[in-house]
């Protein structure tokens, strides 16, 4: 038997994170919130998005449990739900992924499943 503790994975939590990360705008919002709490209008300006678009995506992120809204007078400020999420996002964004094409890729970059990487260009 191994002396290492078992890793407990909450599949529902992973599904919520996957839903959030599946959209480019939501990814950009989450990464922007790594810098600290922000108001939707500021996020829209920073990311060159419409306020309505930002509001809709923040509502999704809230529903996924990844961000919290704090009323500040008549405005609402959004932040990541916890420092652990910030660390996890930073770790995920720092990953270097190896995409192998020899055995038939599980992810077809031509079909738009995964965007091509610099590594794809080197291997091509």
Task: Summarize this entry quickly.
Helices cover 48% and strands 10% of the residues.
Write structural notes for this entry.
- The protein is mainly alpha-helical.
- The protein folds into 2 domains: 72 residues, Orthogonal Bundle (Arc Repressor Mutant, subunit A), CATH 1.10.10.10; 31 residues, no CATH class.
- It is 48% helix and 10% strand.
- It has 6 helices and 2 strands, in the order ααααββαα.
- Helix 3 crosses helix 4.
- The radius of gyration is 18 Å and the shape is globular.
- It starts with 10 loop residues before the first helix and ends with a helix.
Describe the SSE topology.
Elements lengths: L10 H11 L2 H10 L6 H8 L3 H13 L3 E6 L2 E6 L2 H11 L24 H6 L1
Antiparallel strand pairs: 1-2
Helix pairs in contact: 3-4
The CATH H-level superfamily of the largest domain is: Winged helix-like DNA-binding domain superfamily/Winged helix DNA-binding domain
What's the level 1 CATH class of the largest domain? Mainly Alpha
Content of β-strand: 5-15%
Structural class comes to mainly alpha
Widest β-sheet, arrangement of strands:
1-2
Radius of gyration: 18 Å
Q: Per the principal axes of the C-alpha atoms, what is the gross shape? A: globular
How helical, in percent, are the residues? 40-55%
Quote the CATH topology of the largest domain: Arc Repressor Mutant, subunit A
